[in-house]
Design a protein that fits this description.
The complex is a heterodimer. Chain A is mostly helical. Chain A is built from 13 helices and no strands. Chain A is flat, with a radius of gyration of 27 Å. The chains are: A mainly alpha, B alpha+beta.
Chain lengths: 336, 366
């Protein structure tokens, strides 16, 4: 009796501990590559960690704990960096992500709807072609678009020159897309002037961004039953009314998660911004991630960069919580 | 209120002709059921009327207006779809109000009509719900309600009951009939279920392979089918058919089915007088085949030897599956029948109620 009780208790303990045993390797790896750096980063964000401390790390004798100074410096723009203002970068970053999604989603839906027309010729070919930008490496895309916006030889200025001949303008046009610091529409975004470089990047990223939205919308469109449109046409809805009253609301469950995904993608679109403008001119197109990169790679202020990363982490957390909420709130209309 | 006319209507999809020269005149306030096997073109005929498909040739007239080139919304019709086609993102109320809102009907008028329709259909409690929160039968009602509020000239129903379970189907059948009584509007109803057709229609149009087979009242269709297809399609269990020859026996005419011979009573033999040796199909409905023990006395009964294959007791009647030589057939006999599997018997054919079709053209000879 005693023996069987204790042996059953042992078996039970084994049964209970087994799942944790399976999880252990994953925890160990995550501990090494995720949690340790995370904690280490939080610690050095309170220090004046710089290049000379790399060798000894936290044991460096001259490493000072300076409390919240790094954070305060970032928020009060007290860093000895030209044209840096944390809140302006933050505002621009949000606007950048938002304005991209606001363009990509409607364009993607519209093009998907048009390509969904029954009896359209070579539908599959269009669909295959428009997905191409997604699979081209970002560095290549950025290089091409940098060339398109070249002041002297770029296709964009040549195109504008050609168009403007119809309005009586003669001669070439030299717009300095990536250098001009004067915002073409002053006061468009109060607090964060949008330079021409922003508009150039918007165009380039539009080319890159709408196809994904279109793919999602195409899939969702095909799941809308045809008889809803038939019922609506008998109910008296015109093509436009059918689009607004059926297509748009029924695409919403698919498009909102896609828009959230697009938002986070644009929010952290490091390589594109870095390769095209490098955050310029005058840091007007700097994103949080590109600035963090500058702090580490170019200025080598590890302490400040760590503090900056912690702030980005907090911002990303807020963005995540909000978008997660939006996604979950999107109910599916599927009739179950 | 309006009549509907199909005049020489043809519909082709590519090389395929779905409807070949359809002519139907539906009278005002009639409940016409289009019935036929799946793929016969009945749904296409309805969709042509709704304006969801374009007509290849001929004319469709609603009231006194040719509607070939009229948009669906201008035809003053309402349609109930097989899938119900409720807008999943709108509440029941908004589903029903959708068409009225598009037509800029005043708000209180919309409210009055929706509430009235909801009352009629018993869905007043459901008005704020979304379609996914409703059962199949409730969705069905909402779909009908959406049609009612529009107050159209013609109601179109495309197999509206086929997604419901058997019990609900019987109930909704009665409700749709009641609705027709109440609204006094033209109903055109498509189904593949001949029971639905028989129970609801004022007239039935039987369609097969894109051709109208017969257009008549349910009773006439049942009693006097024009051809083999209609005879076999209407009625459940279906009419029994026997390949046979007509034969003369003195002054009498006989039906010679090989394994058995039955005599045509003098009162019915006139049309067959000069048809000695003609190949025909002899048809008799299951209820006109009797267990010899319970056969009524006052009929022109003819005995046919048969062996019992299977019996199905239904309570109010018994279905007996019989074999006579190479023919198998069904009798619907008195429930007191003592016939059991493998019994040999002589069932009684009621020869006042038989059908004879030409073996070649399959048209009724009468």
């Amino acid at each position: 009796m005693e023996i069987s009780k204790s042996s059953s208790r042992k078996a039970q303990w084994q049964k209970k501990s087994l799942p944790y045993l399976y999880l252990l390797p994953a925890f160990l790896i995550m501990g090494v590559i995720t949690f340790y750096p995370l904690i280490y980063q939080v610690i050095i964000s309170f220090t004046n960690f710089e290049t000379q401390h790399l060798l000894l790390g936290l044991k460096s004798p001259e490493l000072e704990f300076i409390g919240f100074k790094n954070y305060v410096d970032i928020f009060t723009a007290a860093l000895p960096v030209e044209n840096f203002n944390f809140f302006r970068v933050l505002e621009f970053n949000f606007w950048w992500a938002l304005s991209n999604v606001m363009l990509h989603v409607p364009a993607g839906v519209l093009i998907a709807t048009l390509l969904n027309t029954e009896g359209l010729w070579m539908k599959r070919i269009y669909r295959a072609v428009y997905i191409l930008p997604v699979v081209v490496p970002p560095l290549v895309v950025a290089t091409i678009w940098t060339n398109i916006f070249d002041e002297r030889y770029g296709a964009m200025n040549q195109l504008l020159a050609n168009i403007s001949t119809y309005f009586g303008h003669v001669g070439p046009i030299y717009i300095r897309w990536f250098e001009d610091v004067k915002p073409p529409i002053p006061g468009f975004l109060p607090g964060a002037p949008l330079t021409l470089a922003y508009y150039a990047m918007m165009m380039a990223n539009f080319w890159l961004g709408w196809p994904f939205m279109s793919v999602v919308a195409t899939g969702a469109l095909q799941s809308i039953p045809k008889d809803l449109y038939e019922a609506a046409s008998i109910d008296g809805a015109t093509g436009g009314q059918q689009f607004w009253n059926i297509t748009v609301p029924l695409l919403r469950p698919a498009m909102i998660p896609a828009a959230v995904y697009g938002f986070t993608l644009s929010f952290n679109l490091f390589n594109f911004v870095f390769f095209m403008t490098g955050g310029g001119p005058a840091r007007s197109t700097e994103l949080l991630v590109t600035f963090a990169y500058n702090l580490v790679r170019n200025l080598r202020w590890y302490g400040v960069a760590a503090a900056f990363a912690v702030i980005i982490f907090a911002v990303a957390m807020v963005v995540f919580l909000i978008t997660n909420r939006i996604t979950r709130a999107t109910q599916n209309y599927s009739e179950a | 209120m309006a009549s509907v006319t199909y005049k020489n209507v043809v519909k082709k999809f590519g090389d395929q002709t779905i409807i070949k020269n359809l002519n139907i005149a539906v009278e005002d306030k009639e409940f016409l059921v289009l019935v036929g096997p799946s793929g016969c073109g009945k749904t296409t005929a309805l969709r042509l009327l709704a304006g969801l498909e374009e007509i290849t040739d001929g004319e469709i007239v609603i009231g006194d207006r040719v509607v070939n080139d009229v948009a669906p919304k201008e035809r003053d019709i309402a349609m109930v779809f097989q899938s119900y086609a409720l807008y999943p993102h709108l509440s029941v109320y908004d589903n029903m109000a959708f068409g009225l809102k598009l037509r800029k009907t005043p708000k209180d008028e919309i409210k009055r009509r929706v509430n009235e329709a909801a009352e009629v259909l018993g869905i007043t409690d459901l008005l704020q719900r979304k379609p996914r929160q409703l059962s199949g039968g409730q969705r069905q009602r909402v779909a009908v309600g959406r049609a009612i509020v529009r107050e159209p000239k013609v109601f179109l129903f495309d197999e509206p009951l086929s997604n419901l379970d058997a019990k609900l189907r019987v109930q909704m059948r009665a409700e749709i009939s009641k609705l027709h009584q109440r609204l006094q509007t033209t109903f055109i109803y498509v189904t593949h279920d001949q029971t639905e057709a028989m129970t609801m229609a004022t007239r039935i149009a039987v369609i097969n392979k894109g051709n109208l087979q017969q257009l008549d009242t349910p009773q006439n269709l049942y009693d006097h089918p024009n051809n083999l297809f209609v005879a076999g399609f209407i009625g459940s269990p279906a009419m029994n058919f026997f390949p046979a020859k007509l034969a003369k026996n003195g002054e009498k005419m006989l039906v010679d089915a090989g394994d058995f011979k039955v005599q045509i009573p003098d009162s019915h033999s006139a049309p067959y007088k000069n048809m000695d040796g003609r190949s025909v199909i002899f048809g008799i409905r299951p209820e006109n085949i009797h267990d010899p023990e319970f056969a009524p006395q006052n009929i022109n009964g003819e005995k046919v030897p048969a062996k019992v294959d299977v019996t199905e007791l239904m309570g109010n009647e018994t279905l007996v599956y019989l074999v006579s030589g190479k023919n198998t057939f069904v009798g619907r006999v008195d429930p007191r029948s003592k016939l059991r599997i493998n019994d040999s018997t002589q069932v009684v054919f009621d020869m006042d109620k038989f059908h004879i079709f030409d073996a070649g053209s399959e048209e009724a000879i009468r």
